[in-house]
Amino acid sequence: MKQERYDRDPVEDARSVSNGKRTSNLILKIASLMMAVGIWFYAMSVNNPSSEAVITDIPVQVVNLYDESITVTADQPLCVDITVTGKKKDLDKLTADDFTVQADASGISGVGKFTLHPSVTAKPTGVTVVSCTEALAARLDFKATAEIPVSVNLTGWSIDDNLEKGDPVPEVETVSVTGPSTLLAEIKCARVTVEPGNLTGSIRVSGRVELIGQDDRVMRDSNLTCAITDIAVRIPVYAYRDFPLTVDCKYGYYTESNTAITLSPSTVRVKGDPADLESVSEISVGRLDETKITEDTVTMPISLPDGLINVSGTDSTTVSINHKNTVLRSFYVQNIIISHADGMQYTLITTGLNVRIRTTADDAALISAENISVVADVSEIVETTGRMQVPVTVTINTDTPVWAYAVGEYQITVDFGK
Asked: Which of 190, 283, 287, 393 is the most exposed, fewest CB within 10 Å of its CB?
């Protein structure tokens, strides 16, 4: 057999082996990369798959109302639920604030009940809205403000037998409430409830305001806004007491030795806060001007300090004056003096006055008409022409001091400018 021999270059053989290994490595790298990409896509599809979610209670904006004074209300909050799809991680982050839902009211005129059709007008990127609440029942009404009367609900209180609770008085009589006019018409009152506990005196407490409907139920409607949320209430507490009536004298002419003064009635029954009653010991009906008392009796009104109430059934008392050891004498006085005339021209028309003087029996013998003067002070006269009635004061001047005073009011007639 013939044998063939092939002579090969060892260097070339080495190069061929090296090139083959490089090609094989490249193929492996490409295959590995493709496998890694596939695994990544698989992992992403498993960890963040497409998903579906429901977003609830998204508020609805009603737009294009035909009148700015129109307000929209509903029995339930004007909100919708929507179903969306997208990547799970994106959906997990969504809230109602990420969406804008509007209902177009441009085709509605008038007021009353209507059906609104909401739609999503803004949403996050990558999220698809699949469904949305299709219809909402709503009422359109004019917005108005009404003054609602305040009533007080008093609970949880007690009082001692010797005291009396008065009617509670709120610090305001009405409150302003704003809302749909139809709802305002359903309001009966604004009720404030207070719980004062045991009452020992008048107090002031505050309570929350609740709107009460015509059916006497609390109206909890977010479409109604009350201008104030709390109201202070004064709860008066009364005690009763009888006080003596007293009268004062202006000049001190009436004393126990020369005058007996009685009042009828002599007491007055009063009710008031216990603390106020403690500060009172008597009720004064006023002051007698001895120089003007010309009768034996004077009727005077009974006036009480603030906070006290007269429950006696009478608002006046009769003051009886019984003079003792004094006499009333009359004198015809012609000694008329014009004071502070300062260049005025005048003519006295009155030339004499009958003046009554109260004095003691002994001093009466020392007084005569010559001891008495009537003085007219004309310093306040502005109009210096014409006939005028000018009041006068009576003075008594004797050589020996006497106890005496004029009784009554007097005036004279003067012509000025003549």
From this structure: 287
For the CA atoms of 354, 360, 366, 372, the dihedral, rounded to the nearest 10 degrees, stands at -30
User: Which amino acid belongs to residue 414?
Assistant: V
Q: Which residues of 225-249 are buried (b: 16+ CB within 10 A; e: fewer)?
A: ebeeeebebebbbbbeeebebebee
Instruction: Please give the residue that has the higher pLDDT: either 94 or 263.
Output: 263
Burial 166-179 (b: 16+ CB within 10 A, else e): eebebeeeebebeb
- pTM (two decimals): 0.59
| Distance (Å, whole) CA 19 – CA 234 | 107
Find the farthest-apart pair of alpha carbons in the chain and give their distance in angstroms, rounded. 201
Q: What is the CA radius of gyration of the chain?
A: 52
Helical ranges in 95-219 per DSSP H: 181-184
Name the amino acid, one letter, at 178. Answer: T
Is residue 175 within 8 Å of 228, Cβ to Cβ? yes
3-state secondary structure of 11: helix
- Contact by Cβ (8 Å): 302, 283: yes
Residues 304/307/313/317 CA torsion (nearest 10 deg): 0
Q: For the segment 153-174, what is each residue's pLDDT rounded down to a tens digit? A: 999 999 999 999 999 999 999 9
